[in-house]
């Protein structure tokens, strides 16, 4: 694939990440043409680790038309690296980022026409990567069963999910990517800042009913309604973002109607959530007895890679 590439690394150790990226020649092997530190022009002679330690914002750009760039924002805890023209494959990108200190890495679409498509509303592009502790951002059950190609680097504990064939035309690539994008909704799955996540929690109407301090479990009562995929995703993500005063290690959905609980059990199980139901014998946890079907067959484009 030859084209634009953008990598947005989140939950980062910014100084070492920038140094390792620059050592690898990405986004450029040349010294930056322009440097701005805390939005002021800067002549950098110190190591990037020292620069990042002493500032809150860093912007680097290369070339007259800014053909490459790098941004770091302490407030939002991300490093963004971009290049307008770059030859890459999923394997080469995995090899590039494997040593970088981050937890999640989101890519932009390689096809700009996606943005003109009213159906494209995802924060994801062609791939998404998790590293080390970042794997807690997503249920392993989703990783194993999603409609994507999985690439692994065992040495550095990196998992990359490829959403579509990079050689596919824009419209075909979008159709291949949509199922994975829906399952890994970026607005709840990981955005990098608690304030943004709080807004998403409010937007989907997620409101825990009780809290069990003994098991550190948020409890959501469900009666006369269906739990949306958005609410499931937000519930799962509260275990990572920790936006409440009390620590949350698990979220339990307690259904007043057993039939409704069993109907939604497969989806809730996929997100790693606890499911309880009010039965003739009282409240019972039913997700422990659930036997999921085998993982679905990978899409044809994945099998062809």
UniProtKB/TrEMBL annotation:
Protein name listed in UniProt: Uncharacterized protein
Domain of life: Bacteria
Upper taxonomic lineage: Bacteria, Pseudomonadati, Myxococcota, Polyangia, Haliangiales
